[in-house]
Amino acid sequence: MVDNDELSARLDTSDEWIRTRTGIGRRHVVGPGMSTVDMAVEAGRRALQSAGSADIDAVVLATATPDQICPASAPQVASRLGLGPVAAFDVNAVCSGFVYALATAAGLIAGGVSRRVLLVGADAFTTLLNPDDRATVPIFGDGAGAVVLRAGDPDEPGALGPFDLHSDGELSDLLVVPAGGSRMKTSQNPADSYFSMQGPAVFRHATARMAESSRAVLKQVGWTVGDVDRLIGHQANIRILHATAKQLGLPADSLVVNIERTGNTSAASIPLAMVDGVNDGTLQSGDRVLVTAFGAGLTWGSTVLRWPGVTPA
Fold this sequence. Notes:
Number of helices: 9
Strand order of the largest sheet: 4-3-5-6
CATH class of the largest domain: Alpha Beta
Family: Belongs to the thiolase-like superfamily. FabH family.
CATH superfamily of the largest domain: Thiolase/Chalcone synthase
Radius of gyration: 18 Å
Number of strands: 12
Domain Beta-ketoacyl-[acyl-carrier-protein] synthase III N-terminal: 89-169
Active site: 95, 234, 264
Low-confidence stretches: none
Helix content: 25-40%
Enzyme class: transferase
Strand content: 15-25%
CATH architecture of the largest domain: 3-Layer(aba) Sandwich
EC number: 2.3.1.180
């Protein structure tokens, strides 16, 4: 765990500066020898324990920080959890990854390909950061969260509603790690190997797109804004969350928020917020929940559900 005072000791920043701009007080950072797969396995183990069964026939891992560029990390997660030769693959939509992967897992079930899917959102995003960059280091943390999806009836608690998914590749340079892929495998400029973002532009697009997508999915399911009990947004920045709720006309106390103690954990942020929301009583069985996210790509998307009676492991 790294708190703001520890960062302030080596960066030109302060606890007050970080909190007022991001709402973050501390964040987890992976130590030497720990990877995305390690975190994903632990999150998956807890989700399986909570579900009361390891009868899984697919693993979907939402991550932008796989252990290697090749192969995908999901098969390693499945193997280490002892799930056998099940289908397993990664989904990379960065901070929108969990919502995209949720739609993918729901599609596997709806299409009859799978009966029960383990969905994990995991990112060791601090490994992509320049340790001296005051603009990014205070914002991001590392983590993993997981859920189990199963086939069921459309009117039972936990049933996912429609999805609204979008992207805009023309703005991909707003959040980017230039080097490491097929276009630029290596670079003599160290900055090309680190994540960078254009903060003000990201703020504008994130709030507008999440609000727009939320309205679209509410229209599809036939809910009004007044029907929403809880909003679980990607935990990127407390000001983005509040601005999105305000644009939708939702009260700030409808938000499920844990960013103060996690930072932005990319694809892990929504499932981690779900777990904390259950543990602190914010999420109650039967709540009508709106889920929305925005990330690099650009990508964004939303869905809805009635919260089931679950107990995290």
